[in-house]
Design a protein that fits this description.
heterotrimer, A mainly alpha (209), B mainly alpha (658), C mainly alpha (306), B: 658 residues, 3 domains, two-stranded antiparallel sheet, C: 306 residues, mainly alpha, 11 helices, globular
Chain lengths: 209, 658, 306
């Protein structure tokens, strides 16, 4: 029951991130989502493996990455998202529709979910979908980074299914990968801002020629 | 049945008589009124007879028809439609007589004769038991409607609206011909009873259904086949708009129901298709209505919305029939049928009162009217009753039929499998959205026309219309109130027609299950009326004790307020349209005047009709382009055309020889 | 039956302004003030009952009828809601539809009364109210669909009473999501922050306050009373769904219900103190997110199998 509560809170926070347009709030919501996420391994397979996972996730995703992102946006003048590709209402509705598709697909897939809840796969998929939506429909670089991170949260949820079988090293490797990626992205955002005066990725089309 | 045949005879004879006495206006008008009255009342009596006794009657006339017999029969389904036809045509006819009475230029008797021809053809459509007779009557309906619509044919807009209607209707009839050909060739006869005995394989049933949707769907106005509706309704005189919207577009639904009676088994996707069409037409219709500035075009789009609601009921009824869920099937069909009747009544009322406004104020633009409730009290209050009914608010008949459709959808949700659940859930949400948007739209229409101050200066002299025009509207409003407060009679009549469609017998317990919650609803409404009366009583006593003053509306301190500062209908609809602007193509042009000493500014908002602009106009352009290529053979010389005929004749002769 | 209805209605009428008072006291506590007394709404309504009316010559009978119709409609809608151990006097299949229909009736009359005054402010409030209530209505229906699927019936009392306890155990997350979306609709319908500000009377940015600007005296009293009753009835529905207390003893049910209502009023005060009013073009987005939440709740119910 607690697992389902956690999964639903993750989905709820994902929806709130989707409908938001302030960068600071989105980073804080992501931190909160990662906090709930770090509790999920403990609810699925309590044990030493899960405790280590939880601690590492908290350190990386709740403290380090958000502070990295806050450092990146400190230099960026804009604290809000400009008008996205599709309006906020349409984005939310599209997110809801995609979640419906995801729920439909998940009930037809045949994954080993007996020990966990059958909400696990749909929530994981939904986070991936919401991450994709954010990546595609927003212009600000930071928002796209947050979209990527939300997608990573979804993949993390997926990995919970295989927790017993994945060695700890692989998990750590994945997390380190993400950390380095975010570090690089933060530096790149800074450089974009210095070059173009704004962190909107639409300026990157200037590099085409 | 005898009554029905008498009614047909009276109407046919009188239409000829009206033309003969066209010189004497008073006499032809009088003949029109009396004969319409007698014909409609007789037909009404036969319809009620069939419904109450639950038996079908039949008659056969010895007229020769190609490939078929002239058989007409009245079963509960047709009888229910006959109810709506007779009531509305009679009342709209009386109204029309008063509306057109002062119209000097035109020859009214031709119009009256065509009106009666329309009644006859509609009555034949719902009683035809033969495909050939059905198609002939269908064509007669189209032709008589066309001539009724183009009454004001000196205006170009009216003429093009008429052409559009004619083309659309005939495109539909083309599909109907193919459909009936298929059915007749499979069953070996054009008689409906014979067709009902033959069993149709599912793929054939599906093909027939698709052709039926295309053929029967033009008249009701399923989106995207609806583009003729918003042009034809404003173009026609108001009583014609009323019968067009109230009855003539419903015969398409009648056709679909008759197909369901004949072919009892359909593949599942047919019901899903009906539900989807209902949802799209319902929501699309009311959204487009919100963006309209002219009252009759607004009402035309609302007809599309209500057809959507009827189709929702029809769709869930069909799904229930396919799933052998009797309750869902019966309630769905009953809801659809009752909404057909209700819509005829309240849409007729709305169109007649809109016509009354147009006749008094000489314009239908909502943003030029205002404050008419004080100068046109009867029209205004009748329009209010029509608005309350169409929004599906309690006390009036719209609530009862929407309640029934909701109930059918929920029955579907409880008992069906997953995809039916999804469709029913979506349909419930669409129905709720339709209700909310319709309330917003009619608050806009009623408020902008009748309330507030008048927005243009030349409305000071309007006065109420004659009793001849008001009396039919009062009767329609009374029917709305009666069905809303005492739904038992109409619901049970609709239930009998529904059982014919579903081919299911209704037991008294089932009838009780369906009707008893509605009776509790009426009980709650009675309690509401009592609470209202108590509150009014308290207030009356208080107003006697405490002072009552009069002061102008608070204008926030503007020194020169004008009536143009109040909210217009377009500004009222703007928040809703802005939410849905992507679907509707809502655009606002113009805006604030610029500069320090600005000149006059203007602002206009409009909604693009997507089916017309993106679907049909390109298709017609393409057809025009293709046919333009054929202009090569046209040189304008008659000798050349004679040469073509000569060559063709030669070719035929040679071919016959070979 | 008539006596039960009368008792039910009187109970609602007596206790509804109390909720407003509790919310006001909570807001004052958060602001560090002593605040108005708990019974202040009663005093306000009583004061208005002792005043005369001012009518504009632009208005018609609709202007005077709207407050009466809206108060009567919400009062009568309380007949189908059970209050703790007190059963609803009337329960029948589809009473939910009548419930929403009565609210639609009340809203329609208030909207056209606002247009009746011929003032641009009322028109502004009326058009916004019409737009947002469309969205709110579909969310309510979506929540009712979720509840109906869980309890397999469409009688309001049975939806609430029937298997709420087992529903919470099996479908907790879905009910939480439905409850969250219903709470947002609750805020919208009662014109509370973050949708509308009931405290000030600035017409230019408000929805409900702008619509009733021209009412005075007894009309305003009816409007005020009507909104208090609306708060009470919609809150009673919320508490019934959220707290699974049916099946316990009569005393416990009463305690849980009235306690829940008090907590709801306190919660309302907290929400109002902690948030600011949203920009007007963010309100449809708020409602659409509530719609998506309710949708996800429905998906959860469907995927766990009904």
């Amino acid at each position: 029951m607690w697992l389902e509560l956690a999964l639903i809170s993750i989905v709820f926070l994902g929806i709130v991130i989707l409908g938001n347009n302030r960068l600071g709030t989105m980073i804080q919501l992501f931190a909160l989502q990662s906090l709930v996420l770090s509790a999920t391994p403990l609810l699925v397979y309590p044990g030493r493996h899960a405790v280590v996972m939880a601690i590492v996730t908290i350190i990386l995703k709740v403290f380090l990455m958000p502070s990295l992102l806050f450092w990146a946006i400190r230099h960026v003048a804009i604290r809000r998202e400009a008008q996205p590709l599709i309006g906020y209402g349409t984005t939310l509705l599209l997110g809801g529709f995609l979640m419906g598709v995801v729920f439909l697909i998940s009930s037809n897939l045949d994954l080993p979910v007996q020990e966990t809840s059958n909400l696990l796969v749909p929530s994981a998929f939904s986070m991936v979908m919401i991450g994709f939506l954010l990546l595609i429909s927003r212009f600000q670089a930071i928002t796209q980074v947050i979209g990527y991170l939300v997608m990573e949260n979804g993949i993390f949820l997926f990995a919970l299914l295989l927790l017993e079988n994945t060695p700890l090293l692989v998990e750590m490797g994945i997390l380190l990968d993400i950390f380095v990626a975010v570090l690089v992205m933060g530096i790149v955002v800074n450089h974009i801002n210095q070059e173009f005066g704004s962190a909107s990725t639409i300026n990157l089309t200037n590099l085409k020629d | 049945m005898i009554f029905f045949l008498y009614s047909l005879a009276i109407l046919s004879a009188s239409s000829i008589l009206i033309i003969l006495t066209s010189r004497f206006r008073k006499i032809s008008g009088g003949i029109f009124l009396i004969s319409t009255g007698m014909g409609c009342v007789l037909a009404l009596m036969s319809a009620v007879n069939v419904l109450v006794s639950r038996t079908a009657v039949e008659a056969q006339l010895n007229l020769r028809l190609p490939f078929g017999e002239f058989t007409i029969g009245l079963d509960p389904l047709g009888a229910f439609f006959l109810l709506a036809i007779t009531v509305l045509f009679l009342l709209a006819g009386i109204y029309g007589y008063g509306y057109l009475k002062d119209h000097e230029q035109k020859n009214l008797s031709v119009h009256y004769a065509l009106y009666q021809l329309a009644i006859i053809s509609l009555m034949l459509v719902v009683t035809a038991k033969n495909a050939v007779l059905f198609l002939m009557a269908w064509e007669m309906v189209t032709l008589s409607s066309y001539f009724l619509i183009v009454f004001y044919d000196q205006e170009k807009a009216v003429r093009s609206a008429g052409y559009l209607f004619l083309i659309a209707a005939h495109a539909g009839t083309f599909c109907l011909w193919i459909m009936f050909l298929l059915m007749a060739s499979h069953a070996g006869s054009t008689d409906f009873d014979q067709m009902a005995l033959a069993s149709f394989p599912l793929p054939l049933a599906g093909l027939v259904f698709v052709l039926g949707l295309a053929g029967f769907g033009v008249k009701p106005g399923f989106i995207p086949l609806h583009i003729w509706l918003p042009h034809a309704h404003p173009a026609a005189p108001s009583h014609v708009s009323a019968v067009l919207s109230g009855v003539m577009i419903k015969v398409g639904i009648y056709g679909l129901m008759r197909i369901i009676v004949i072919i009892k088994d359909f593949p599942q996707w047919c019901a899903a298709a009906l539900l989807s069409i209902g949802m799209i037409s319902g929501v699309g219709g009311v959204l487009y209505a919100l963006g309209q500035h002219e009252i009759k075009k607004l009402l035309a789009y609302h007809s599309i919305e209500n057809i959507g609601i009827i189709t929702l009921g029809l769709g869930i009824g069909l799904w229930g029939q396919m799933d052998h869920n009797e309750l869902a099937a019966l309630i769905g069909y009953t809801g659809a049928l009752l909404h057909i009747f209700n819509h005829a009544v309240f849409k007729g009322l709305l169109f007649l009162s809109a016509g009354s406004v147009i006749k008094a104020a000489h314009t239908g633009e909502i943003d030029r009217l205002g404050g008419l409730l004080k100068s046109l009290p009867w029209t205004g209050h009748l329009f209010l009753i029509g608005s309350l009914s169409i929004c599906g608010l309690p006390f009036f008949n719209g609530f009862i039929s929407e309640w029934l459709v909701f109930r059918a959808l929920f029955e579907g949700m409880f008992h069906f499998k997953m995809n039916a659940l999804i469709f029913s859930g979506l349909a419930v949400i669409s129905l709720a959205l339709i209700g909310g948007l319709a309330a917003a739209c009619f608050a806009k229409a009623f408020g902008a026309i009748f309330l507030g101050n008048s927005r243009s200066t030349d409305l000071a002299h309007v006065k109420e219309n004659s009793a001849l025009m008001l009396a039919p509207m009062v009767v329609l409003a009374a029917i709305c109130l009666w069905v809303g407060l005492s739904p038992g009679v109409m619901v049970s009549l609709a239930l009998r027609a529904a059982s014919t469609i579903a081919s299911v017998e209704i037991s008294p317990t089932m009838e009780g299950v369906i009707i008893s919650p509605l009776l509790t609803v009426v009980l709650v409404l009675l309690v509401l009326m009592m609470v209202i009366m108590v509150l009014v009583l308290f207030k009356r006593i208080a107003m006697g004790i405490f002072p009552v003053e009069h002061a102008p509306t608070w204008g926030c301190g503007y020194s020169a307020p004008t009536s143009r500062m109040q909210y217009t209908a377009s500004s009222f609809a703007e928040p809703v349209l802005r939410i849905f602007r992507n679907i509707l193509g809502y655009a606002v042009k113009g805006g604030r005047p610029k500069g320090y000493f600005p000149k006059a500014g203007e602002i206009s908002s409009h909604v693009t009709e997507a089916s017309e602009v993106f679907l049909f106009r390109p298709i017609f352009q393409f057809i025009k382009f293709l046919t333009a290529q054929l202009k090569i053979i046209q040189y304008g010389y008659t000798q050349l055309y004679l040469l073509y005929i000569f060559i063709f004749l030669l070719a035929l002769l040679i071919w016959k020889m070979v | 039956m008539g006596i039960r209805i009368l008792l039910h209605i009187s109970l609602v009428m007596i206790f509804s302004p109390l909720l407003l008072g509790i919310a006001g006291k909570t807001k004052a506590f958060f602001a560090g003030r002593r605040g108005p007394p708990l019974l202040q709404p009663y005093y306000d309504i009583g004061k208005l009952f002792r005043k005369g009316n001012v009518y504009s010559p632009t208005t018609t009978w609709i202007f005077q009828a709207a407050p009466i119709v809206s108060m009567a409609a919400v009062l009568v809608s309380s007949i189908v809601i059970p209050m703790g151990s007190i059963e609803a006097p009337l329960e029948f299949w589809g009473d939910v539809i009548l419930f929403t229909g009565l609210y639609a009736l009340a809203r329609f009359f208030v909207v056209i009364a606002a247009l009746d005054t011929g003032s641009s402010f009322e028109g502004m409030g009326a058009s916004r109210e019409a737009a947002f209530s469309c969205l709110a209505e579909i969310i309510v229906f979506l929540d009712f669909i979720t509840l109906a699927l869980l309890s397999q019936t469409f009688v309001l009392s049975e939806m609430i009473k029937g298997n709420i306890l087992s529903s919470w155990q099996l479908f907790g997350p879905a009910l939480l999501l439905a409850g969250a979306s219903y709470f947002l609709v609750f805020l919208t319908e009662n014109a509370r922050i973050p949708v509308d500000d009931p405290a000030t009377h600035l017409e230019l940015t408000m929805i409900h306050e702008a619509m009733v600007l021209d009412h005075s005296g007894w009309d305003l009293a009816y409007i005020l009373y009507g909104s208090a009753i609306k708060l009470f009835v919609l809150g009673a529905l919320f508490v019934n769904i959220l707290i699974p207390f049916h099946g316990l003893s009569v005393v416990m049910q009463t305690v849980f219900f009235w306690g829940g209502m008090m907590m709801l009023a306190v919660g309302l005060g907290i929400v109002e103190s902690c948030m600011a009013r949203l920009r007007l073009n963010r309100i449809p987005q708020l409602l659409i997110s509530a719609f998506v939440l309710a949708l996800v709740g429905l998906f959860v119910v469907l995927i766990k199998g009904v």
